[in-house]
Amino acid sequence: MANRLGNETSPYLLQHASNPVHWRPWDAAALAEAVEADKPIFLSIGYSACHWCHVMEHESFENQAIADVLNEYFISIKVDREERPDLDQIYMNAVQMLTGRGGWPMSVFLTPQLKPFFGGTYWPPTARTGMPGFDQVLRAVIDAWENRRAIALEQSEKFAERLQEIGQAQDSGETIGIEFLDQAFQYLESIYDFRFGGFGGAPKFPHTMDIDVCLRYSRRRPDSRALEMAVHHLDQMARGGIYDHLGGGFARYSVDARWLVPHFEKMLYDNALLAGTYVDGYRVTGRADFARVARETCDYVLNYLTDESGGFQSAEDADSEGEEGKFYVWKRAEIIAALGEVKGYRFCEIYDVSESGNFEGSSILNLPQSIEDWAAAHNLDAAELRSELDSERATLLRIRGDRIRPSKDDKVLVSWNGLMIDSLAKAAGALNEPKYLAAAEKAADFIFDSMLDSSGRLLHTYRHGVAKLTAYLDDYANLANACVTLYEATFDDRWLERAIDLTNLMIRHFADPVDGGFYFTADDHEQLIARNKDLYDNSVPSGNSMAAVVLLRLGALLGNTDLVDEAQTAMRVAAPLMKKHPSATGQMLTAVDRYVGPAREVVILGDATSGATRDFLTELRRTYTPNSVIACTSPDSLPDDDSPLAPIFAGKTPLPGSDGTVFVCENFACQRPVTAEEAIANLHP
């Protein structure tokens, strides 16, 4: 039997296409084969940028002896978690129930009816350092299946029942109020690392959703430490090794407490979320270094993770030439040879490059102190020093470009693209960078041109001309939210119309009309052993939280209280989790912040491309107003009664002789209209 992965589009699956294991993709044929042969399924789930997935492949899946056992006793199925997050959610829950922890590679043994009875993550091929060997695990599972099957089946039934329970949640009936935000911030403050930044200890993840909660909360409670925490967190990451000081962009997480040593893979979703959060950090503080990090992160995605068709690709690997991080680290002698002794020694001192190194004999570039502090300590002009360092970093980037670059997962995922489109559209206005808006629109156009099925519904993944797999809740919610942001960046009605269409499809196919909230899979999706409601943030915001956000934004723009009610129900479904696990529900807490208000509708009659209206919009987009929605049109082209925007523009007329009229409504009350010039002054009283 030949390995069946060769015709797949996923780079992760293709990496395993030459393994001696008789891998199958997850499809009807493989599942039927398990039933017919009465064999257990070995389900292996990972992703292309996963370091330990590569290790297990090399050690075990390229091992002929292990492959022979898998081929004889199991139906082996390989799944890309990024293509099939529905499967990943279900079986990750199972592994966490079995072992108390999770991660990738995920290794799960299923009955032919797809119910898990044993699982784990990475196993070495043979026992070492207290870990059982994969060979031992296989023998134990075979023994259980052949000699104690009744026990295995009974266990699988219990797990399946529990998985179905975990996936359900219902309207709690709780009143959504400011106390959710107060309690959440108290918890975040209690776990914050005021020395190195971040929430909790090592390993440390960016936690962008929690930073967003702190930025929002700082406006509500200026006397709290919320702004201090958010700014400190952003500062520490930007100075750490988790940030690529040459090419821009962030690695997935830091293995240590001080953000020095990253897990070197660079994921689209991290960089999408972080770009937007640094834009907001810049809006709140006016700090130029936050704007620079946001810009460099956006540029990284445009330079290295953009498909020629305009879609954004998924990830760059941690490894190159078989070594983790080899592409990114430096020897002191390399830098001195490139920059000369004087500049080279200075660069090494500033960026923590030593003879002994800070990572396995080499050095990860990082800033133990800020460039401004270093300049002050050495009586140098900070702006002049930064300019010189920029030139030196460009030199090193060119040299690094000659190295063998890590492999790339070039598939395009709608959900992650939605996050990136949203951040680029936001960055375009805040940073006055039109190329970001152009890239965002091109990516969105690509999705609508190339990633819809014949009925107009989204497909989840695209690679090399092939779009496939029915889309999930977060595909619809993230892209709809991005389309709202594109409307506010361009005032092109087509983006609003697309946001409305996507939201209607999301409600029709994913909403639970009985218990509230949204399922992760559509009502006509492949039937699995559980249908989950995605409520917890992981590396990306949960589907329900993004649904709540876009429902609130659209509800405000369209004057549609039904959408607001739908969002309120989703928040009530998540209410017990927000109370119990606030650090895992940050995006839903941002929805609560918007819902509790004050929220503003800013309506403008004027030419968005010229004069005082343009100037007002420029200032507005640089200002941190997270709970506002914005609509703009020329007084000569007010929407007709059939337009979805008719309610927000109803009854509004321009002030005589004004070059733009601004209307601000807040908490169901509208302020007097003002000229665009006066509105600018009101932004910065």
From TrEMBL:
<dbReference type="InterPro" id="IPR036249">
    <property type="entry name" value="Thioredoxin-like_sf"/>
</dbReference>
<dbReference type="GO" id="GO:0005975">
    <property type="term" value="P:carbohydrate metabolic process"/>
</dbReference>
<protein>
    <submittedName>
        <fullName>Thioredoxin domain-containing protein</fullName>
    </submittedName>
</protein>
<dbReference type="Pfam" id="PF03190">
    <property type="entry name" value="Thioredox_DsbH"/>
</dbReference>
<dbReference type="InterPro" id="IPR008928">
    <property type="entry name" value="6-hairpin_glycosidase_sf"/>
</dbReference>
<dbReference type="InterPro" id="IPR012341">
    <property type="entry name" value="6hp_glycosidase-like_sf"/>
</dbReference>
<feature type="domain" description="Spermatogenesis-associated protein 20-like TRX">
    <location>
        <begin position="3"/>
        <end position="164"/>
    </location>
</feature>
<dbReference type="InterPro" id="IPR024705">
    <property type="entry name" value="Ssp411"/>
</dbReference>
<dbReference type="InterPro" id="IPR004879">
    <property type="entry name" value="Ssp411-like_TRX"/>
</dbReference>
